[in-house]
Amino acid sequence: MKAVVAGGGKVGANVVRSLLAMHHDVTLIEQRPYRHERLVEEFGDAAVLGDATEMHVLEAAGIARPADLALALTGDDEDNLVICQLARDAYRVPKVVARVNDPRNQEHFDLLGIGQTVCAAANILGLVEHEVPDYGMVHLLELRKENLEIVELQIDRDSPACGKRVGGIRVPDGSRLISVMRNGRSELADDSTVIRPGDQVLAVLEPGTEDELRRALLRSR
């Protein structure tokens, strides 16, 4: 696989090391001369000096060779957005991935169709949410392209769903209970599955229906 990585900081350099270890053809773009010098010592000609938002720099990195993957991993969200747009629209790179430094900028990537993003802050908040869940619901995965998300719900004794079969629980349109974990064992949920206290239920749903699903499965607060 040919990959072009923009941003030679700790994140970018570590990604490049991993890709090289997997024997992929990788080029790393870094615009700061002092950092580029250090990268050349480790990666040699695979490190290119320049601004990855400029097309001639991307071309010097081999993006038109063509590249199979472009990763925008700089510390600037605006740059990452531009890099992904250029890679996708100008060079037809089939897979683009962007680093989102400020979670508040996620919507800009979504609006411009950059669906594959990684946000460290959001991931850390997700881990915190898992340890201290809000009203018993944890957001596990967001599938932006499909306009779906997967959540985990912790059922307690006061839950209105306790003792009910899945087929008898009124969940929001566009949502579905997909599995139940009980005593460390997980099983796919079907209409005959009975919800018990202590169960961890996975559900797939459309964004915006979380509150309705919470009311159907968890107690009101």
Could you walk me through the main structural features you see in this protein, from its secondary elements to its overall organization?
This protein is an alpha/beta fold and 221 residues long. It contains 7 helices and 11 strands. The protein has helices at 10-21, 33-43, 55-60, 77-90, 106-111, 120-131, 210-217; strands spanning 2-6, 25-30, 47-49, 69-72, 95-99, 117-118, 137-143, 148-154, 176-182, 185-188, 200-205. Strands 3-2-1-4-5-6 form a 6-stranded parallel beta sheet, with helices on both faces. A 5-stranded antiparallel beta sheet has the order 7-8-11-9-10. Strand 5 (95-99), helix 5 (106-111) and strand 6 form a beta-alpha-beta unit. The mean pLDDT is 88.
**Low-confidence spans: pLDDT under 50, at least 5 residues?**
none
What would CATH call the class of the largest domain?
Answer: Alpha Beta
Number of domains: 2
Oligomer: single chain
Structural shape = elongated
The overall average pLDDT, rounded, is 88
Helix content: 25-40%
How widely separated are the two ends? 51 Å
CATH homology group of the largest domain = NAD(P)-binding Rossmann-like Domain
What's the Cα radius of gyration? 22 Å
In terms of DSSP E residues, the strand content is 25-35%
CATH topology of the largest domain: Rossmann fold
Contiguous helical run count? 7
Question: Widest sheet: strand order?
Answer: 3-2-1-4-5-6
Question: What is the string of SSEs from the N terminus onward?
Answer: EHEHEHEHEHEHEEEEEH
Number of strands: 11
**Helix/strand/pairing category:** alpha/beta
* CATH arch. level architecture of the largest domain: 3-Layer(aba) Sandwich
User: What does the main sheet amount to?
Assistant: 6 strands, parallel
